[in-house]
């Protein structure tokens, strides 16, 4: 018994380390390689997205949609690498919403396109609420 207490159980320590490393806490994700320039582009674009659609400016709406699609595809692959399943899920919803917008713009359904576009900032925010350090928006 005394022998056991003296010798640290390496297997238990390793098991504990594995649990700590896989815990889904914000601090576990190292964001140093994150593309914040892209995020700022998204921020500008998302502001024009719905207005471009309601103005029935299809070309501008398609350009906005492309930037946003690239953004959500970037976050999908970035957070896949980090093993953050909830962020990947949000990114996939983003891709879907933007594709809905594009389909509706192509069909000249601007009301439906605008409704889908209004979903976009909620998806940005739901990821920021979980993963963006401080000042979540
Ligand atoms: C799946 C997660 C995720 C999605 C989706 C996402 N973001 Fe972010 N965003 C982040 C994270 C994480 C940070 C913080 C990165 C850091 O601290 O280095 C961030 C940072 C930002 C920043 C701050 C950039 C800076 O200058 O520091 C802006 C602006 C931003 N996002 C806008 C957006 C907009 C607009 C959208 C939607 C169109 C969006 N983001 C979608 C995760 C996401």
From TrEMBL:
Keyword terms of this UniProt record: Signal
A GO MF term: heme binding
Signal peptide: 1-27
Any one of the GO BP annotations: electron transport chain
Superkingdom of origin: Bacteria
Protein's UniProt keywords contain Lipid metabolism: no
Name of the protein in its database record: Cytochrome c
Organism whose genome encodes this protein: Methylocystis parvus
């Amino acid at each position: 018994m005394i022998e056991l207490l003296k010798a640290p159980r390496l297997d238990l320590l390793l098991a504990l380390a594995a649990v700590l490393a896989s815990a889904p806490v914000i601090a576990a994700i190292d964001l140093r390689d994150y593309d914040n320039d892209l995020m700022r582009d998204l921020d500008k674009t998302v502001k024009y997205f719905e207005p471009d659609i309601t103005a029935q400016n299809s070309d501008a709406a398609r350009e906005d949609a492309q930037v946003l699609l690239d953004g959500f595809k970037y976050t999908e692959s970035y957070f896949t690498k980090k093993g953050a399943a909830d962020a990947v899920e949000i990114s996939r919803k983003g891709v879907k919403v933007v594709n809905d917008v594009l389909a509706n713009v192509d069909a000249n359904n601007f009301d439906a396109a605008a409704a889908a576009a209004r979903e976009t900032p909620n998806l940005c925010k739901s990821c920021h609420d979980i993963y963006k350090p401080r000042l979540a928006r």
